[in-house]
Amino acid sequence: MQLKYAEFHNFKLLENVRLEFSTNRSLPLTVIRAENGSGKTSVLWALLWGFYGTRGLPAGAHELRLTSSAAPIDAPVDIQVIVEFERDDGHGKTAYRMIRTVQETPRGGDRFERGPVKVRLLRRTPAGLVDVDGDPEAVVAKFLPPRLKSIFFTDGDDVQRFISGESIHGRQNRVHEAIRALLGLDSLGVARDDVENVVAKLRRETAKSAGSDLESAEKHLSEITEAIATKTTELDALTERRSRIASEKAAIQKELNEVRGIGNIDEINAEIKSREGELARLESAEDAILTSMRIAINSQDASWALASESLLSGYDILNGLADRRIIPGTSIEVLTDRLDIGTCICGTDISDGQSARAHVETLRSEQRKVSESRSRQTQTFHAARMGRATYQGQLEDRTDFAHRRTELLTQYAENRDAIKNAGLRIEVLKEKRAGIDEERVRTLASRLENAERKLTDVSESIGRLEGSLADLEDRAKLATDAYEKAERASKVNQTLRTKRLVAEDLKTLISNTLSVLESQYVERVSTRMNDMFMEVVGSDPELAGAVFRRVCLSDGFDIMVHTIGDGHLDPDFEVNGASQRALTLSFIWALMEVSGQTAPRIIDTPLGMTAGGVKQRMVEAITRPPSESDPPFQVVLLLTRSELRDIETLLEQRAGATQTLSSNKDYPVDLTHDWKVEYPVIRACACNIRQFCDVCQRRYDDEHGLIARGG
Amino acid sequence: MNPILQAVVVAKQQVSDIEVRYPTYHTELVNTLVEVIQKQSEGLSDQKRRTEVSQLLDAFGSTVASKQGR
After folding, report:
1. Do B14 and A509 count as a contact with CB atoms less than 8 A apart?
2. Type and span of the H or E element at A597
3. Which residues, in sequence order, are bridge partners of residue A236?
4. Cα–Cα distance measured from residue A694 to residue A667, given in angstroms and rounded to the nearest whole number
């Protein structure tokens, strides 16, 4: 099905608007340019109302007035939406026209009265338009199932939410539903149950006509079949329960992550403890540095550093006195020491009996004779000589007091900074801890644990049930063989038998068809979705820095996002907005392509969160004309001037129709021309994405490089 | 939009696994499948639909029996 045109009369601000849609196979795109508040959402809603009535509108909008809020009170307004579309019903294309009309009378405020809705569906024939037989809404529902409307009519935000579903219980529900509906799995499933019911009925009738042996075999087989049906229902319920618990678990985990967004309470407590330990160590280190400082200040080194000039000058005087032998060059202690050792400072042997020893003993005797003051001078000279040597050594090694002082002061300053930082970090962590609802974290953690336990329990029950079902199926095979053996041995009604065999053929055909669709066709959707998604997000798994490895559909039809390194991302919580949009669109495009369906895809503001290469590639992928083997499609994008920016050339290459919507309520702030209409209204003009006219010109159009249409 | 488009395409491939009871049997079986599925879009209750599916298969079974000479 493809839209040809739509007319909107008095729907919201769409007073008299007609939009043309491209049905050109090689130009599948229709662009409707409109700024915020210029009717994009109204067009989307008007189409939904036109096809489905108020039940087609988004939840919460069913009771909203359809007229302009500026419509005069108590004056009835005729609202009408006309949509002409064509569809290939197997014998070529047929055009249809859907007309929905209602009268609404504003009563002031939000109050209004709405009259009966009139719906007509007309088919174009060589003789003109004729009414289609049957309920128009039921017929349209076959062409465009209302439960799939979120695939055909959507907006940027909804595209993003499509994967996650509307509630935790509906997680990826729309994905599952779209697959089941568009591949016909639901229809086949119901058909299989209907035919199974006929098979059982025919088996009972056959057995009844043939006698007790066959009846007994049939009864046994029926009991097993019923047991299988019961267990299958239980299994379905448990599988559903498991899915629900998994969704709940994901929601709890999400909330927990959000609450812990400021930080994990346990991790914060651990870090506070660690930082407090570090602070204690730093404070001990500070004490040690201060002690070292005190020792250094009280040391001789400090004296040499602070009074080195005076000390060196004093040493020089003492050294002069020693040179002139006014004070002995050596001290009594040194001479005594040398005599004890038996070797002079110059290396001469002065042990007992040596002549040189007598000289040194004489020297010591002379030394003992000098005055007390000389003795002090001598001691001072030697102390000064040692001190000077030490001082000079320290200067060379850079271990003198001045260097040591600088080193200790640096250590002290660094340690002070570290103490300050550790203290601040502890304060920040304590503030964080105070900001966390600890009780909520504990509750959620407990609920998460509970959900995990339940999930394990249910999974174990499912495992047991599957084992039990496998056993029953084995028994059913044996019972079927026994029944057929009994049937062959009996005189059964051959017509009844043939009917049963035919019904069983049909059941087998349905089961095999289902099996192929659920495996091979879902795999095709999965592969196509992956190709398109990777193209749009520009991800090559082989490249360094790539995030996405592939996206695919699981056995349960969930969209899975695999990352480099064999990890997964939750498409609801862990994939960015632009990638979520790319994923949804890739899924919808792949599903429509593989299912061979032709239906419009109308998206309001789809590029709001995309930019640069992703935006370009997304539009490139969703507007690429179908290959010869693929069904035609139609995509209608409702775009603002900002969304159009940088992709104008691509849009021009793909668009078979372009129009612009404007609202006079934007005059004079944004709209350039006064339409001389006293009430708010939306109008369409034929301007394409490079043009402006007296209806649509806006004050910043020159920034977009637009030119006057016809100018 | 035809939700069973691919289902019918696949059924036409899968029918070759079913016994050929007479030359046109496979085509008739697929057509019957389409009729059975179409019963779901007639707005019938489950019970009414099952009754109609039963009647439909009864009629088809009789035709098959007749063509097989039973």
Report:
1. yes
2. none
3. none
4. 12
Q: pTM above 0.80?
A: no
CB atoms within 10 A of CB A622: 23
Q: Is the dihedral of CA A539, A540, A541, A544 positive or negative?
A: negative
Of A143, A506, A516, the CB nearest to B1: A143
Instruction: Give the best residue of B19, B29, B57, B64 to mutate against chain A (max A CB count within 10 A).
Output: B57
Cis bond upstream, residue B3 (ω within 30): no
Q: What is the ipTM of this complex?
A: 0.97
Enumerate the residues of chain A whose CB falls inside 8 A of the CB of residue B2. Answer: 597
The third-level CATH classification (topology) of the domain covering A1-144+656-711 is Rossmann fold (3.40.50)
Cβ pair A1, A592 in contact under 8 A? no
Under DSSP, is residue A502 helix (H, G, I), strand (E, B) or coil? helix
Helices (H), A183-307: 185-210, 212-259, 265-298, 300-306
Complete DSSP assignment for A7-71: EEEEEBTEEEEEEE----TT--EEEEEE-TTSSHHHHHHHHHHHHHGGGGSPTT-TTS--B-TTS
The model's pLDDT over A469-493, given as tens digits with 9 standing for 90+, comes to 999 999 999 998 888 888 888 877 8
| Domain-wise residue ranges, chain A | 1-144+656-711, 269-327+370-433
Nearest to A498 among B10, B43, B70 (CB): B70
The predicted structure's pLDDT at residue B42: 78
Q: Are A605 and A639 in contact (CB under 8 A)?
A: yes
| Long-range CB contacts for residues B27-33, cutoff 8 Å, separation at least 24 | B28/B60, B28/B63, B28/B64, B29/A502, B29/A505, B29/A506, B29/A509, B30/A509, B32/A506, B32/B56, B32/B57, B32/B60, B33/A191, B33/A506, B33/A509, B33/A510, B33/A513, B33/B8
Cα–Cα distance for residue pair A259/A256, rounded to 1 Å? 5
DSSP annotation of A134 reads S
Dig out the tokens for A352 from the structure.
């007992």
User: What are the pLDDT digits (tens) for A34-80?
Assistant: 999 999 999 999 999 999 999 888 877 777 889 998 899 999 999 99
Rounded CA separation A214/A486 (Å): 5
Tell me whether residues A502 and B60 touch, CB distance under 8 A.
Answer: yes
Q: How many CB pairs under 8 A join A and B?
A: 127
Question: Please, what is the Cα angle at A457 between A453 and A458, to 5 degrees?
Answer: 115
Cβ distance A509 to B7 less than 8 Å, yes or no, reads no
| A302 vs A42: CA distance, rounded Å | 88
The rounded distance, in Å, linking the Cα atoms of A618 and A221 is 55
Distances (CA, A) of A137 to A52, A78, A133, A142, B4: 7, 20, 11, 9, 20
- Cα A405 to the chain's mean position, in Å? 57
